[in-house]
Known about the structure:
This protein is of the alpha/beta class. Helix content is 47%, strand content 8%.
Amino acid sequence: QPTECFLSQPEEKQETTVKAKRRKKKKISDILQNTASKPGVPADLQNLLSQHFGENRSVIEIEELKLSDSCFLPSNDLTHSFSSYLKEICPKWAKLRRNHKEKKSVVMLVICSSALRSLELIKSMTAFKGDCRVLKLFAKHIKIKEQMNMLEKGVFHIGVGTPGRVKALVEQDGLCLNSTKYMILDWNWRDQKLRRMMDIPEV
């Protein structure tokens, strides 16, 4: 009897150590939790572009993709609310809004990683947008044909949506970017898994 008890004890210990080891496996959210939030800089986007297109394009084509620093607006230094940030980067919004008459296009395009985040940003820009029409450009509960019909029939000033749906609309000729003056990337917001937009490979 004592020997049986003695033998069963180490087996239990082995099981508990294995379970503990499994629990300690690092998750992506643990790694991202340690990375501090900081405003995006032009180099961040340039690096993403060169990584994405680097394999399929020649050196000359990659050079053509490079954007000058004058193409970039100052990023939100995280002291601004969304409305106050938009007011700072776009002081002549009222004039731009009045002059915009084109269909199938928007003056300002805001890109974020999820539909819920898009709705959150639309609510938080009320102090900025004034008398303008905002269009939701994401896939959740909204068919792409509905969005294409709305863009064809009416004039919209701001589009807020996800990269996948914006890409699909551009490819299907539903959204024209010729009259788009501002493109805002929701660079620092993290989802439930603590991923930012550029941490998601599909984006």
